[in-house]
Fold each of these.
Amino acid sequence: MLELEHFQAKWTPVRVKKMRQTKKAEDFRVSWKRENASDDFEAGRRLARVVFAMAVLLAPALAGAQAVDPGPGADAPAPAPLQGQPVAPNGLARLSVSAQFAADRKPIRSGLNWRVLSESADGTSSRIVARSSEPEPAFSLPSGNYVIHAGYGFASGTKRVSLGQQGLRDQVQISAGALSLAGSIGDAPIPAPLLSFSVFVPLQGNSEGRLITSGAKAGEIIRLPEGTYHVVSTYGDSNAIQRADVKVETGKVTDATLHHRAAKVTLKLVASAGGEAFAGTAFSVLTPGGDVIREAIGAFPQVILAEGDYVLIARQEGQVYSRDFKVESGSDRDIEVLAK
């Protein structure tokens, strides 16, 4: 409310100087001054009434031009939303979700793929209404019942929620861990580009019961449900293969190194020992029993072989040459066939 300024009237007292006059003249002057003072008092009252009336008339106009202090609790503006918590559009509610490992309840901060499916009351199949790959997404959705699905590599977790207008924050637990695979020859690590891995879920009586993934690279993080897996490591592209059973624990990355017993050999057809290799030679590497392990064409192709005994056959311009050789783990060398 506009607060008017209060004016305090000031009255100046009238001094009467004593003069030597007759009693009649003095009474006349006193009477005249009293009449004038009464007139001044009436004029002051009229002036005050005029000022008050003008202030009342001008109050609405002045109120629009002045800042009004509403006081505590009086029509204050709505508070701004908390930082990091956006307000959902009108008619929608905010669903914020996150994931954690089931064993230690540690948050999962990467590798997640979220899907939100709506549940219908008539029993029709659910449909995907929202997706996200953020670690802690927030969805704006109509109120209703939903199924939250969090994918974590080959593992996942689901949860049914009921979303009201007030919004909801919830968590999904996932029983999952991860594998990080590598290979070595003795103590020497094998370069990652020369390795590939396949991961299987063992079934009763079959270690390679169900394939989970193939072609995985060394150092790659393979996210898996908690459990035991059968890993097959291939060094090169022939028969240098190692196998191992590996256990994956919830919330942990299991580092597994498979130790190969193999070597890299360079194949050559030469006229004499240490001589120049013939170009365009077709090579075949066989087991002693005659099974073909690897075939290659060139002057000196390289082949990675598991340790053991082999037969090398070289074909050049209709001529066939052969020799036996042995591969020892970690011993890379040239294998020469003499064209004789």
Amino acid sequence: MEALKARQSDEETPDCHTNEGTVRVFSKTITVKTHERTDLINLSDDIREFAASTGVKDGYVQVSSLHTTAGLIVNEWQDALLVDVKNLTESIVPRDTYYRHNDPEFSDCDRHNADSHLRIVVLGHNVSVPIEKGELVLGRWQSVILTEFDGPNHRKVFMQVFGI
């Protein structure tokens, strides 16, 4: 206990803050139009606007793709890197490989989109972003990006803010 008191007295400005109140939950589903089979869409402004509209000062926003061939990542929104992301997913899960999901002997799917499903297995469907003092906590270069691998399409993205 003495060590804690000594440490607290040495610190003039703590690097954390507290807040308390009634937890509130807000939900919204948006539809995002994609334009290519493999497409990346920056959702950061949509998420930021929704979070701000709730009035939540401290909490989280959970963002989920409601699809099995479109997911979410957090990364830099920069043209060259976006091309690299597309190329990386193609190299990890190539489109022109045999997949049972595409084979009529084993599957009733006629879209031949097994690669799209498998790419999302690698990348994921959900991201959580903290909210502090009413602002999304993202690094300077971070954006929330919808990853489309079976477009063009209309994709539903569910957002839920919870906090105080």
